[in-house]
Amino acid sequence: MDDTQLLKGVLEGCVLAVISKGETYGYEILSVLIDGGFDNLIEGTLYPVLTRLQKKGLIACRMGKSPLGPSRKYFSITPEGEQYLAAFVENYTKVTQAAMHILSEDREKKASENG
Amino acid sequence: MDDTQLLKGVLEGCVLAVISKGETYGYEILSVLIDGGFDNLIEGTLYPVLTRLQKKGLIACRMGKSPLGPSRKYFSITPEGEQYLAAFVENYTKVTQAAMHILSEDREKKASENG
DNA sequence: CAAACTACTTGACAATGCAAAGTAGTTGTG
DNA sequence: CACAACTACTTTGCATTGTCAAGTAGTTTG
After folding, report:
1. What residue spans define the domains of chain A?
2. Which CATH fold topology does A4-114 show?
3. The pTM is what?
4. Cβ of B38 under 8 Å from any chain A Cβ?
5. Does A22 touch chain B (CB under 8 A)?
6. Is A48 on the interface with B (CB under 8 A)?
7. pLDDT truncated to tens, each residue of chain A (115 aa)?
8. Rg of chain A, C-alpha, whole Å
């Protein structure tokens, strides 16, 4: 079973949600999401998402030093981003409920028609 | 807000779920899904999904007369399809829970840091 | 034949995630 | 300095999938 398609779009919202909790940077977001259950997430997937969110004006970005390695790009959510996030959560909830409703309706009906 | 990306992959599972409830055909599946909350779903989206499911061996197909219009393609789920559907539901539930967890963690934390 | 409805098909397109590789700063070993 | 390991961000090429727009075709009504 391939999760890839199920992440489409959801990932963007989740990245935005992580940033909304406080200024953070790519590598940290990556580990938060992996810990949160997005096991197979890799840099090549995450960073383009950040670029897109920035282009849309949903997050702001500044360079900052790291105590450990190279400089980091710190991201924070914009007012537009917060609006978008709220709308996203609402929308995602609707889609998920529609899907879960269809996926969970008992399929026993069919079986009982045979008996 | 554009739902398009959120449908990726989910739609396939939902179509399979509808078929699993009993033999049916494209136009009917379309109306079931639209009634179920997938408002913007159109033929050009649904039929390719059916073709894919068939190619994967998850559904079987037979031609049958219609009491109204042209012949219909009736679909029914295969044993493989049922296995796939069960795995899909489990998987979708996991991804959804991970996403909802991240999306719903209170973002009040940030606000309270300001006050 | 024409119009309206049912039903399925197809081609061009855009968005997004993934794999794989690359660029670069920092720290530690020798 | 040379080399490796770790942190951190970037880029290229690709596959999958939903949408738009248009097309094909059977049935009924006039």
Report:
1. 4-114
2. Arc Repressor Mutant, subunit A (1.10.10)
3. 0.88
4. yes
5. yes
6. no
7. 778 999 999 999 999 999 999 999 999 999 999 999 998 899 999 999 999 999 999 999 999 988 888 889 999 999 999 999 999 999 999 999 999 999 987 655 444 444 2
8. 18
Query: Do the chains contact at A17 and B103, CB–CB below 8 Å?
Result: yes
Q: Is B61 exposed, middle or buried (0-12, 13-18, 19+ CB in 10 A)?
A: middle
Helices (H), chain B: 4-7, 10-20, 26-35, 43-55, 79-104, 108-114
Contact (CB<8Å) B95/A14: no
Searching chain A, which residue's CA lies closest to the CA of residue B33?
A102
d(CA B52, CA B48): 6
What is the spatial distance between Cα B105 and Cα A33, in angstroms, rounded to a whole number? 13
Q: Give contacts of A20 with chain B, Cβ < 8 Å.
A: 107, 110
